Amino acid sequence: PTGFESFISRVLLLERLREVNALLGFTRIESTSDGGGQRTRRAPIGRTSPTWVPATQVHGEGIFVEFSEKALVDWENVPAALSQEAELRRGHRGWRARRGLDPNSDFPGIRFALLHTIAHLLIRELALDCGYNAASIRERVYADTSDGKSQAGILIYTAAADSDGTLGGLVDLGKPANLGRLLRQALDRSRVCASDPLCAEHNPRTDSSLHAASCHACSFVSETSCECGNRYLDRALVVPTLQVTGAAFFTGT
Ligand SMILES: [Zn+2]
Ligand SMILES: [Zn+2]
Fold it and tell me: Could you report the predicted ipTM of this complex, rounded to two decimals?
């Protein structure tokens, strides 16, 4: 999209997308994605080890946005972004320590937090501007930078078993002119939250939480849409907020 050339390197429109979910077992009270990790025991679905498992297959469509590696690396080294990362990391350590987990592991990194926040802002914008049912749009964040990998993408897709998004609507919104407009609106909207200044001032270190400037009024999405329970979100990484102005990825758009 015009205006975003230096931030976004590629947009893929996925007209057909297939999501397969398989049921491998159950957990009680704590889920493995809830920080329970190795401690949580997964109950098997049968007395003997099964030779097949129940699965569902849903067809949908999606938009994959790949971000510029250079822009991301430059941004990751900005002092203000580094200090935001330190705050998020302290929140992460506190959160895990309170649950008796190793505080030093599993921090997904500042890149994940940035891409994740952008994905949420886009999902909300799609819902607000285009009438999509936000609960039927899902996200997938690709931000693994371990072992020399350099992932930098988000996938926004509809894979709900209803009619939303099976008619080419979402793919159409991914076309440059539409996506540019949606992104710009999403960024404008996210500068100020209805819960500001409380939202912008929220520091994950003080209450050992996993999100910074983020709340239900600005960047949370429904549980069915988010792949990690509305964690690791911070508007300050995307745009300047009332509290932090120097850590924004999108500057000069
Ligand atoms: Zn907010
Ligand atoms: Zn999410």
Answer: 0.96
